[in-house]
Amino acid sequence: MRIVAADSGSAILNEEFAPQKIVAVSAICTEVPYRNAFTQLSELLMTAVNQHDLIVKELRMCKKLLRLASADAVHLDMSLGGIPVSQLTMSDLQDMSISSKAKQRIREVLPELRKQATEIEQEFNVELLAIGKESLPVRIAELTAGAYSVIYASAEALKHQRTILLGLPALCTIALGEREVTARSLQQGEHDVVGFAEDSDNVIQKIKIEEFSNPAVRGFRVLRIAAKEA
Amino acid sequence: MRIVAADSGSAILNEEFAPQKIVAVSAICTEVPYRNAFTQLSELLMTAVNQHDLIVKELRMCKKLLRLASADAVHLDMSLGGIPVSQLTMSDLQDMSISSKAKQRIREVLPELRKQATEIEQEFNVELLAIGKESLPVRIAELTAGAYSVIYASAEALKHQRTILLGLPALCTIALGEREVTARSLQQGEHDVVGFAEDSDNVIQKIKIEEFSNPAVRGFRVLRIAAKEA
Amino acid sequence: MRIVAADSGSAILNEEFAPQKIVAVSAICTEVPYRNAFTQLSELLMTAVNQHDLIVKELRMCKKLLRLASADAVHLDMSLGGIPVSQLTMSDLQDMSISSKAKQRIREVLPELRKQATEIEQEFNVELLAIGKESLPVRIAELTAGAYSVIYASAEALKHQRTILLGLPALCTIALGEREVTARSLQQGEHDVVGFAEDSDNVIQKIKIEEFSNPAVRGFRVLRIAAKEA
User: Fold this and answer.
1) Under a CB-based contact definition with an 8 Å cutoff, are residues B151 and B181 in contact?
2) Exposure winner among A47, A51, C8, C23, fewest CB in 10 A?
3) CB of A65 closer than 8 Å to CB of A37
4) Do the bridges between strand B172-176 and strand B180-185 make them parallel or antiparallel, or are there none, so unpaired?
């Protein structure tokens, strides 16, 4: 069973570790044994943390990826019990046991979501499921966005010659290779689950990175990224 | 302190990873340091996932085991805060903060449960506690059922010469020995907790097993079991 | 960012593993990468588990430590979303989504808490945050109290020549050195987080310790501490 999924991840933090901007969005395609992506797409986001239409962006990334890789299902980062998005109605939403804030956010984008979902279903003959945090493919997408965010934040640090604090996805640690970044899951039972990012512009070798834990949110790690001194 | 506990575990899955049948039930006896069972009993179940009287079956397994091994307490897989089962009343149940669905399930079997519990208390001079998921002995029973389910599912795959998808208990991974199956916990703080199953009919050597993560339920692993080609 | 935090931890258990007395309180100062304390203070508590003013004791320990080490923030073990304690009012408390039992406990000590917090803010120019279990420094303080509790309980076992059951903090395991005790976190994502205790009276070498899991509370470990036979 091949599954496409998308998620956005990592945040630029201020000095008090409060998130300012979401850094990256990734769509991935994975299959048994569901440990990593075999095809993937990532984009720089740098959008405000309170922006509500990230899910629409994620849906578009899935659509792009489906043109490169066929799949049996699409998993979206909306934790609504796995309901197909094209059939999701305002009244379904009303009955769900999620916070009223979360409901309001989804309500605002629901017409656009359903439109996109219906188009994707017709074009690619695949169901889009609102499965969210229960999905391992969504987790792989989150880790992939986490890996790419390191490259994007490093490019930013080089360009502006300033230090950047990057908040990684939950329970995720970074390992740097010569030309790639690996984001490993620290979640129990996910010791073999990773996201990769290719460093095609060769920025990783020009920066120094220090990883430490976020003192105010247990389970989250932070990178301090700075240009290497010449 | 010696504790007897029982649990059922593992499910036969369909191609969409939806559980169809519960595979095995185990009762175990454990003592300090509570890492594995020193005496155990397991049986093939293959009952529908929506059947509600598994707890009665589990209680009977405890009774069988108590004839082989004395214990200071019995832990049952009902998460009711550790209340003694023989004293559990409909009105206690009403006041508990568990789902109304869970209440309904327990209500249906409560008379039978109390009858069995009272008999066991009198015969073996031991209290039966509704402690559920907080109990490490119940976890060891779950892992033991997980280990035996691999042997039962393998025998099924051999008999019918078909591939079987087996959904393991939460946060559990399987290791195959020459004549035994080990189910290890992947839960945090349980790196040394295991269940064992003896492969007395020598079926493990005749099958091939692939383990991977369930893409739609994070933390759960799946085995694809098939007969080795001759 | 340097952070001071305090917590109390470990409990003397009876034979049924029920907690009787809280053993130790620690205040620590930590900084990037937030893996351990660089300065710390610990005291023997041995107070009843139902005593409600531990938070006041913890606050006083923070105050003592602030005289030894400056800090940018103080983290307290009250899980109220990170609100500054000096500004916490009865009506704030009323609106919070915590249990009415927890509210009642805080209400009883709130005047004393606010008084202490205001004094500390003025003397040390630092904010005291009610961040609780989300704080990694509070976790390091908890592990430090866990490490010291082993020494305190060992001294007790030697003095009275009796066996003591010590319940460790959640997801914590103990390693004994020649002259120190290390409490390591078993929590996911905290594999590198520890608390230390120095064994200045050399009691560790005189006792034998056995570690095992608490059968009735998953994730908690227990030590059986006894004097070595001469």
Assistant:
1) yes
2) A51
3) no
4) antiparallel
Contact B137 C214 (CB under 8 A): no
In order along its 230 residues, chain C shows pLDDT tens digits of 999 999 999 999 999 899 999 999 999 999 999 999 999 999 999 999 877 789 999 999 999 999 999 999 999 999 998 999 998 988 888 888 888 888 888 888 999 999 999 999 999 999 999 999 999 999 999 999 999 999 999 999 999 999 999 999 999 999 999 999 999 999 999 999 999 999 999 999 999 999 999 999 999 999 999 998 76
Which residues lie below 8 Å from residue B133, measured CB to CB, with a gap of 6+? B77, B79, B139, C218
Residue recorded with tokens 């991935």 = A28
The ipTM of this complex is 0.91
Contact B190 C221 (CB under 8 A): no
Contact A131 B216 (CB under 8 A): yes
Q: Give the whole-angstrom CA distance, residue C74 versus residue B45.
A: 55
Residue from A2, A7, A29, A34 whose CB has the most chain B CBs within 10 Å, to mutate: A34
Instruction: Assess contact for B128 and B62: CB atoms under 8 A.
Output: yes
* Inter-chain CB pairs, A–C, below 8 Å: 56
Q: Do B218 and A131 touch (CB under 8 A)?
A: no
Give the global pTM: 0.94
Contact between C20 and C153 (Cβ < 8 Å): no
